[in-house]
Design brief:
about 80% helix, transmembrane, ABC-2_transporter_component, membrane
């Protein structure tokens, strides 16, 4: 079986990446889990916007009440979405076959990540009828709304990358989920004023500033307001890059330092 895979699998980085990407998308399309994730995100995010955020009670045509809950939804959804990436391969025994293919580790990691990120994009696209509905009620700043969607997409990517690293490091899906959930929650909650005010008397100004600087919530805040801040953009992309780099190191270690 392995030999037949080797005979047809492309060897180039780009071709290998696309092969892994298509493989993951096909697996998602054939299973129910991806559909459940998408339906859950759309239902819960819209419900929170109306029931908790008071979307229409604010008296203005914008989606601020919708976007404010995304960081906390992603704290749970992104670890849940990514926990199967490598842990499931270990559980089913397909990890050995996958790592034996003539595809580089970066292509393996990026292929899986981009497939999951594509699912996130589809989840966000499914919420656009809310955007259309609100725009029918009054003038909406479409540029600001599009920027907020971009921020949500980048924030989700950072959460996915953290989850991918946890999945590569943990053979158990449960441990992968718990680890990613803990790290993502800490990196999100670090931006809360309550955290800063609590740590300041204990750690001092410099240490508190260093801890709060990792906040995904702060990096997302500018996008939420419709502003693309370069530092925030670098922060979110940097977290994604670091998470994928760690995932690649752990996957390469399991491969035995191979290709």
């Amino acid at each position: 079986m392995t030999g037949s895979w080797r005979s047809v699998w492309p060897k180039g980085f780009g071709a290998g990446l696309m092969a892994i990407y298509r493989r993951e998308l096909v697996q998602d399309a054939r299973g129910l889990l991806a559909y459940l994730f998408a339906a859950s995100f759309v239902a819960v995010s819209v419900l929170l916007a109306f029931q908790v955020g008071g979307l229409f009670e604010a008296g203005r045509a914008d989606l601020a009440a919708f976007f404010q809950f995304h960081p906390w939804l992603f704290v749970v959804l992104m670890p849940a979405l990514s926990m199967r990436a490598w842990s499931e391969e270990s559980r089913t025994g397909t990890i050995e076959t996958l790592l034996s293919l003539p595809v580089s580790v970066p292509a393996l990691v990026l292929g899986k990540f981009l497939a999951a990120w594509t699912l996130v994009a589809l989840m966000l696209i499914l919420t656009t009828p809310l955007w259309i509905g609100v725009s029918l009620l009054g003038p909406v700043d479409h540029q600001a709304t599009l920027t907020a969607y971009l921020g949500s997409f980048l924030l989700a990517g950072a959460g996915l990358a953290i989850g991918m690293a946890a999945s590569a490091a943990c053979r158990s899906q449960v441990m992968s989920f718990i680890t990613a959930l803990g790290v993502t929650f800490i990196m999100t909650a670090a931006g809360l004023p309550l955290i800063a005010s609590t740590l300041m008397p204990i750690l001092g100004t410099s240490a508190t500033a260093a801890i709060t600087s990792i906040s995904l919530l702060d990096a997302y805040a500018g996008f939420e307001r419709g502003v693309i801040d370069v530092d925030s953009l670098i922060h979110l992309l940097g977290v994604s890059g670091l998470g994928l780099a760690l995932a690649g190191l752990w996957v390469d270690n399991r491969r035995g330092g191979g290709r």
